[in-house]
Structure formats: C-alpha cells, structure tokens
Amino acid sequence: MRLPWFFPGLALLFGLLLGVFSSPTWAKNPETAKASDSAPLVLGSLTQKEQVSGCGCYIQDLAASKKEGSNSYLFFSPDNADPAWIHLNGKDVQVELKKGPTGMFAKKVGDNIHREYRGNGISLNLDLTATKVCEAHAEGCEYNQYDATLEVKQGKSQTQVQGKGSCGC
User: Fold this and answer.
1) Phi, psi of 84, rounded to the nearest 5 degrees
2) CA–CA separation, 124 vs 151, rounded Å?
3) Cα distance between residue 86 and residue 95, in whole Å
4) Are 134 and 141 in contact (CB under 8 A)?
5) pLDDT digit string, tens, across residues 99-124
6) Taking 80 as the threshold, does the pLDDT of residue 61 lie above it?
7) pLDDT digit string (tens) for 129-162?
8) Where are the domains of the chain?
9) CA–centroid distance for 64 within its chain
C-alpha cells in the first residue's frame, strides 16, 4: 500500500510540534511558572529598608546578630502588630497574624511567645524566648530581647532559622 504524498510531511510537522511544546523551555512561561512545591526555601535579609523602622519586633539570623550595627533583618513587625514582613526566596513578603498575642512583651526572662502568620501561600511560625526583659516602669529600657525560631512552610517545602531579636522602641 502506498501512502499519500503529504503523509511524511504531516508526520515530520507533528514531530516538530511535539518536540517544541513538550520542551520545558518553550512550554513554561517564566512569568507565570510557580516554584516547585519541593523547591528549597531561602529566608534572607529584608530589602525594603524603608519599611523596617520605628517601634516593632526585629529578628536577625545568628550571624547578623553578632555584627555590631547590622541592619540585616529576617523578620520585622511594626509596633509588634500586623502585618509582618519576611524575605523569602528573593522577595520581601507580607504575612498576617493569624494566631498568638498581639503584643510581644514578656514579663520575665524565659517567657515564651508563639505567633502564627499566613499569607501568599506561606505559613510562618515564630517562637520567641525572652532573654532580657525590662523591669516594670524601668526608665530608659524600651525593648525586650529574645532568642527566636522562625519556621517557614510553602507547599511541601519548609525551612527553620534560629535568630535573635528585640521587640519595643
């Protein structure tokens, strides 16, 4: 049996189209492609420094906390309230408080504060343990200091970072 004259051309065209549209380079639009559910999460330093000022809760990773005068922050919550900011996978991201106390002022050293934030497909658990606490009505003492654990989840990926921080003015 003899094939029609155009059949080999159609087979070649079909093969080319299949190769082009199954290629990850051509099939995925980088503007709309989402990060893989299992891609590693990287928590970094906030880049929008104008948002990170005034009274609030500031948390640094352990390395940055050892550098005098460092303004490299993993987490910032203005006036110890909502919303909070983290820098995840190269972007500053806003998250909203979903569970936990509205203030972050421990009454004594060793007190623990747990807060849960959500937003933009991100889940953030923040655990603070007070390491320095202002005495009631102590003049000149405007902030408490904390050891911090930030646990971030997005899809099936998660990361945990230890840090140090302060909350107050």
Assistant:
1) -115, 165
2) 6
3) 8
4) yes
5) 887 766 788 999 999 999 999 899 99
6) yes
7) 999 998 777 788 888 999 999 999 999 999 999 9
8) 37-168
9) 17
Q: Please give the span between the terminal C-alpha atoms of the chain, in angstroms, as a whole number.
A: 88
Length of the chain: 169
Instruction: Report which residue type is found at 33.
Output: A
Q: Name 16's Cβ contacts closer than 8 Å, sequence gap at least 6.
A: none
Q: Enter the pTM of the model.
A: 0.72
Rounded CA Rg of the chain: 25
- The answer to whether 43 touches 159, Cβ cutoff 8 Å, is yes
Report the 3 state secondary structure along the chain: CCCCCCHHHHHHHHHHHHHHHHCHHHHCCCCCCCCCCCCCCCEECCCCHHHCCCCEEEEEEHHHHCCCCCCCCCEEEECCCCCEEEEECCEEEEEEEEECCCCCCCCCCCCEEEEEEEECCEEEEEEEEEEECCCCCCCCCCEEEEEEEEEEEECCEEEEEEEEEEEEC
